[in-house]
Amino acid sequence: MSNLSGDNDSASNQAAAGSDGDDRRIEAALEFLTELATSTLESGYATEASILMVKSCAARWGLHDVTVSSLGRMVIIQCAAGEGRVLSRVAEASSLDAYDCDRMRRLKDVARQTVTDDLSPVDACDLLKKADIGPQPFPWWSVQAGGVLLAFCICLQIGGSALAAALAAGTQLVVNLSGRGFGAHHVPKFVAVAVQALMAGAIGGTFHLVGWLSVAQAATVIATTWVLIAPLPQLISTAIDVVSADSLTALARALGAALIIGGIVLGGLITLALAWRFDLGVANDATLPVLPVWLGIIFAILGAIGNALFNVGGRNLLLPAAGVGLITASVNQTLIHVGHMPSAWAGPIAAIVLGMIAAASADRLRLPMSALALVGITGALLPGLIVCQGLILSVYKVSGVGYFVQAAAVCVALGLGASFGVYLWSVLARRPWAATTD
Fold first, then answer.
1. Region 165-169 average pLDDT
2. Which of 167, 182, 210, 325 is the most exposed place for a label (fewest CB within 10 A)?
C-alpha cells in the first residue's frame, strides 16, 4: 500500500510540475502578446490589424483559444490553461493618436519573425523590446525636414505662390516644434491644438500686415498649417475600426479626433476675431493660381515623401511613398480634369484606389498598409483648397462654414475610402480580410 501511495504522490507531483510549466509558458506568451498589442496601438495600427497580429503569434505557439479584446486604449488577453482555468493579462496603450511608420514596420517584422522562425515567448519578448526602442531610421531633424517639405508642397498645390509656400514651410516648423514642446510639458491636447491653430493664424496674418502676402496668399499659409494639424491618421484608423465593427475603439479614436478638431475650430475663431479688427479692404485678390496637372503630380509625389519622413518613415518607405503619391495624384487629377468631377468627390474615390494598392502591396513591401494609405492621402488628397476658400470668405465676414464642414467631411470620406479599398482588395483577392496581419 505504501508503494502504491508513493507512486500516486509521484504522479501527482509530476502532473503539478507539468501544470506549472505550462502556466509559465502561457504567462510568458501572454506577456509578449500584451506588449505587442499595446505597442502596435501606440504606433498607429488600427485595432483589427493589431488583434490579427497578436492572434497569428498566439496560434504559432498553439494558443488557438486565445481571446483578444480592445476597449479603447485598454487591451485584455485571455487564454485557457487547462482544468477550467483561465490566465489573462490587462494592459493600457499610452495613446491612440500617435503615428510612427518605422515603429509600425519594426513591430510587424517582430510578429513575422515570431511566426516564421518559431521563436519562444522569452526570445520574442527580448526581440520586441529591442525593436520597440529603435534605432530611429534618420536623424531627429529629418522629421522636421519632412514636415517642411510637406507644407511647401501642399501650399503650392492649393494655389500658394513660391513665397507663400516657403513661409508656410517655416510656419509649419514653428507650429510643430511648439506642439512637441506642449506635449513634453503635458499641456492638455485641446488647449495645445487651439494655441497651435491660433499661432498659425497669427503668423499668416502678420505676413499680410507687413506686406509680404496678399490676403488670399496668407490664407494659403494658414490653411496649409491647419490641415496638417488635422487628425488624419486617427480618422483613417477610426474608419478602419468602423469597417471592422470595433465600435468602442472607433468611438475612442473619434473622440480624440473630435478634440483636435475642436481645438482647431477654437483657434480659428480667435484668428478670425483678430482679423476682423483690421481693415482688409475688399476681396479683390481672392483668386488663387492653379498648378499645371504635371506639376501638381510632382508636388504630390514630393509631399508623400515629405509625409513619410514627417511620420518617422524609414528608407524602405520613401520609394513606395513616391509610388503611391504618383498613382493617387494621377487618379485624382484624371477624375477632376478628364471626368470633370468635383474635388470633394474625386478625392475619396482616389482614396479607394489607394486603399486597394496599399492592401495589394503591403505584404510584398513588408510595410504597414495604413502607412502607405496615409502618405498617399496626405501627399495628394488633403482638402487644403477647401479650407483656404472658407478662410478667405470668413476674413471678409462672409460665412465660410459650408467650406469648413465640407473639408471635415472630405477628411472622413478619405479615411472611409481608403478602408473600403482595403476591403475591396480582400474580396477581389479571394482571401478573408482577417488573413492579413497588417
1. 96
2. 210
C-alpha cell belonging to residue 298: 510632382
Listed in sequence order, the residues at least 6 apart from 168 whose beta carbon sits closer than 8 Å to its beta carbon are 151, 152, 154, 155, 160, 220, 221, 224, 225
Looking at residue 19, its pLDDT comes to: 54
Distance from first CA to last CA of the chain, Å, rounded?
A: 61
φ, ψ of residue 88 in degrees (nearest 5): -145, 160
- Helix (H, G, I), strand (E, B), or coil: what is residue 82? strand
Contacts of 78 (CB under 8 A, 6+ apart): 66, 67, 69, 86, 87, 88
Residue with cell 513588408: 366
Distance CA 205, CA 272 (A): 10
Number of C-beta neighbours around residue 133 at 10 A? 10
Question: Do 398 and 318 form a contact (C-beta atoms < 8 A)?
Answer: no
Backbone dihedral region for residue 218 (phi beyond 0: left; psi -120 to 50: alpha; all else: beta): alpha
Supply φ then ψ for residue 249, to 5 degrees. -70, -35
pLDDT band at residue 367 using 50, 70 and 90 as cut-offs: confident
Amino acid at residue number 146? G
Neighbours of 205 (CB within 10 A): 22
Q: Are 393 and 272 in contact (CB under 8 A)?
A: no
DSSP designation for 435: G
Cell triple for 12: 501527482
